[in-house]
Amino acid sequence: MATLRDLLYLVALAWWTGTAAYFGGSATPSVFARFGRTEAGQIVEVLFPGYYRTALATATLLVTVGAWRLAAGRPRAGLALALAVVMLAMALVGALVLQPRIHALRVQAAEAGPARPLPPAFGILHGLSVVASGVSVLAALASWAIIASAGL
């Protein structure tokens, strides 16, 4: 059982890390480099539901397995579980609060006409989304550091 538990933890953390690295480090910059700002924003917006589904699924698995690891007395399991909870919380805030509000502002601006700029609230929400993603990435990196220093 310990091998299964540790494998699930590693797979979930690697999956989350790979998704975040690809989305933030490759896909999004590539789309914005190729398309105009408005069109790129629309394309990336289409990708967000899949990104958040993956983040929610993997963070939920990390929390679940993290609780299992804590119950088994694994080294630094409490800290790893706390980091997984942070990752899940940031994914929930992004998926359920920030992204829907950002989408609503995009729709309102589009309905107002193509020359209408996005309202200032869009920039604030986008900034909060970037911060939430950054916090999640830091939590994932700290989780990898725990593995490197204390093992599974």
From TrEMBL:
Transmembrane segments: 7-25, 51-71, 78-98, 124-147
Major location category of this protein: membrane
Presence of the UniProt keyword Membrane in the record: yes
UniProt subcellular location: Membrane
Pfam families (UniProt xref): DUF4149
Domain TMEM205-like per the UniProt entry, residue ranges: 12-110
Keywords of this entry: Membrane, Transmembrane, Transmembrane helix
InterPro entries the record matches: TMEM205-like (IPR025423)
Descriptive protein name: DUF4149 domain-containing protein
